[in-house]
């Protein structure tokens, strides 16, 4: 019997009623208590309109302009319709996705978030929770399957309660720099989370975690990421054997050891990252065993096996990173599957030679890479290549044409090679990142660059590109975020009359040394600009007012150095981190940058007036360089209270008064340079609070004090320069305990020190004893502001007889300069232990005795000046072993005998030995007899007899040319005691006084000459 129409209508009505009444994710069934909990959670945060820690980054352009998802949450509306909220069919909130919602605030254990007990997925990533603890209350989410707390500024220990979430499939705690994880919690996570498939603990402090605590990780695990987590010890091999593991990332754990299974191993691994670890890697075995592997990252690793045999079995790999491994030879194109290759990073190696060219195969219309040196086809042109990084190698020749013809190429970086020739035109518009910097490329700017509509990063610095480039052409590149044309031979023009502006998302603009004569007006609408470098141009006058609005909320780096600016009226940028105005013509009083500034350079200008105490409002300042100006007055005492200040460079000004005495305990000062001012008074003992001090340069001032023995307790001090002051007294004190063990430069010249040379210091200057260094470094290079190193430690020292400014201080440079003082006594034999010394200057003192034979041990010495002393005896023959010696000065002493022959000594001229009337040798055009050639000790004092003979000769000169000249010559050959006795007999006490005055005036004249020279620089 058929159904009648009324029955059908009734059934249809009942069906619709049930369907409409059944809960769905789109129904307005949000529970009131959960809606209230969400609103309360929202109201506990503010929205960060200038995100810092939790910024979503440039790789998510859709997120850059997005608003917080919580802005759609309104009271009285259904919470299941709110952005980021998902409900089940019963109205329970089961998913909360607040990724990149700009939340700023604290999540504590009382947060209403923990009332959402039905949650199955919680994503709080990319927010700023300001150091909130990861609460144990997360354990209330017993149904949770997905938990993502990454990049949200949590801190503290990961609570063990996280291991109670037994249903978790994914757990991501990555990039929370303040979070740490211990072995006990890690072991429980491994043991209890048996369903876990994805585990990411990247950039979390796992330094206390023992790798064996990972042994029981879930066999369901498909993705394990422990990168940059300070893991150390031996990584368990069984992790590689997990049956479902497809992605393993252990990279950037620098002291993590381990090895890959060598036998009975098959794995579904598709992606393996072991970069910057200490894994022992048998490359050929690895590539032969992992049949499914298509992504391999081995940056900065050590390989077992010879090159190129390691490349034999990697033909299935499409993503390969072998960067920074000291590989050499030709790029191994032959061993790569060029048809599948999409990502190749060989940067930071020693690959050399030219890249292959292409040759056409007419039978199938395909092109192949061709190595002309071996006449060998290497494979198909890699037409699927998206990323190619060959930077920092030794590659040369032209950039081959096939690189300009890859339709999929998005990232090309060949910076830091020796490529030459012109840049050809790119055939496709696929480029996103192009870096051809620091090669030898020349010719015009390629027009096809302006057709790359997706281009975001363009870097061409350090080449020889020529011609005129109009900035208005870059207005076509709407996605451009970084533009660097610095250090070429181009002229950048911004005079085009068209009303154009550069990309409104431009963040970094580098136009250093681009022959610009004015500020580029096309910047006027660049509100997002954060980094602007217009240094080494010809821009003159004032900073225009329209520039004040450029990057007003974002600009953190402004470099206008090496121009012709004359005035700086205003610095309106609130978030400025670096301001560089060095080498301009800026006049008037010192402009004060905003309080956010960490690096302020305004040296080599024409500033006048006093340094205002407002400078101490720069509470974040790390480097303050005001050197080479005309600033005067006293140095503000408050500078000593700036806790972050690392470098204080006020050299070559006219500051007077005393050195600040309010140097706070725990300060960060590493370099204090006050050279070339008018500072006076004693050294403040507050310097002892500078426990990080490496460089102290107080040269060319008016400081009046005794030698500061107490500075020896500064544990990091490497450079001590007290030259050209009024220091006096003895150095070799009885209380020396920790004698400057790291000191490498010690300059006490042009003072009034006296007494014996400091034997205890020579014995314990350990940094000068070691002649070997592991790697050539420069002081301060590890704390430079950027890759270019904006501040370089520099000091003025005497090198090989010339006053020179060391613009960089190498860790192999060691020198002692005690010249122009009143030291007396003998040169200690212990000085021969300082095998690392490059220079030794003890000239213009009253040092007597013989030249110690131990100087032969100073095999690294390049200059030695012992002139204008009272040294006697012969020149030790052993000194010819100082094969690196380039400059020698032994003049104006009482040396006798033959000048040694051989090695460097044959190259020294007359000036090195003049005014030693007992010396002979071809340098002085005085022949030596047999006695002179082989001086030997005999009974009595033959030297005294020789001196008496030379003195009689000198006195004959005195009678012929005047007694004063005779006394001057005789004083170089006669001891003070005998000379004084003789002069009293001849001329009385007035001649004694005359001689003393003459020596004193001579020394003072040299000191004054040096001081004036420094002040006039």
From TrEMBL:
Q: Name its cellular compartments.
A: Cell membrane
Q: Which SMART domains match?
A: LRR_SD22, LRR_TYP
InterPro entries found in the cross-reference section: Leu-rich_rpt (IPR001611), Leu-rich_rpt_typical-subtyp (IPR003591), LRR_dom_sf (IPR032675), LRR_N_plant-typ (IPR013210), RLP23-like (IPR046956)
The record places domain Leucine-rich repeat-containing N-terminal plant-type at 33-51, 67-88
TM region(s), chain numbering = 953-975
Key words of the record: Cell membrane, Glycoprotein, Leucine-rich repeat, Membrane, Receptor, Repeat, Signal, Transmembrane, Transmembrane helix
Q: Which family does it belong to?
A: Belongs to the RLP family.
Q: What is this protein called?
A: Receptor-like protein 7 isoform X1
Recorded source organism is Ziziphus jujuba
Q: Report the gene name.
A: LOC112490889
